[in-house]
Design goal:
copper chaperone activity; Cytochrome c oxidase copper chaperone; mainly alpha; about 80 residues; single chain
């Protein structure tokens, strides 16, 4: 039973585990990934926020800025 090297069975199982987990990770990433581009998400709150900032300045528009952030988070963006 010559000089063939033996491999640990746990070392053989490890690549199989990684292959099984990768599709699961990809599935989770796809579920949490936004379906739209950030520039196209929440056009209503974006318009109100932008108009307010142009007319009154950023400090006066905190409620619209926060409303837009909440909308983007609801769409799946990490803001």
């Amino acid at each position: 039973m010559g000089g063939l090297p033996t491999q640990n069975s746990s070392a053989l199982a490890l690549p199989g585990l990684q292959q099984n987990q990768e599709p699961e990770k990809a599935k989770l990433a796809a579920e949490s990934k936004p379906k739209k581009k950030i520039c196209c998400a929440c056009p209503e709150t974006k318009k109100l926020r932008d108009e307010c900032i142009v007319e009154h300045g950023e400090e006066a528009c905190a409620k619209w800025i926060e409303a837009h952030r909440l909308c983007l988070r609801a769409e799946g963006f990490n803001i």
